[in-house]
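User: I'll paste a sequence; please echo it back and then give the predicted structure.

Assistant: Echoing your sequence first, then the prediction.
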Amino acid sequence: MKEAQLKQVEKRLLEERASTERALQHSDETAHTATEEDGDLTSYTQHPADEGTDTIEQEKALLLLSAEAQRLALIDEALRRLYKEPDTFGRCVQCGNEISMERLDLVPWTTLCRDHQAQQENG
């Protein structure tokens, strides 16, 4: 991979990292709000259906938080690979072929070429 391409991927990774950190912070605030505050004006117990709705909202907020944290870990790992192993960055870990720049621009933390990603998704 050429130096200019590595710089382009690095820029995309840093942009995605900043975006993911913002989303993670927002998800964390949402999860905290969903688990700590239910928005009721009184301390009387809720109807069971309302409790179920609150539980679902809490689970959704925590699921989003987990997904953002996983994405941040993938981005950080890609940055580590980019800085420590620039000669092998952008190569599929399965076949060793170069991953297309179009794919790296869309998913800069990917470790698989399009074909191997499709195989992994199809099981």
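The two ends are 29 Å apart (CA to CA). The chain has one domain: 3-89.
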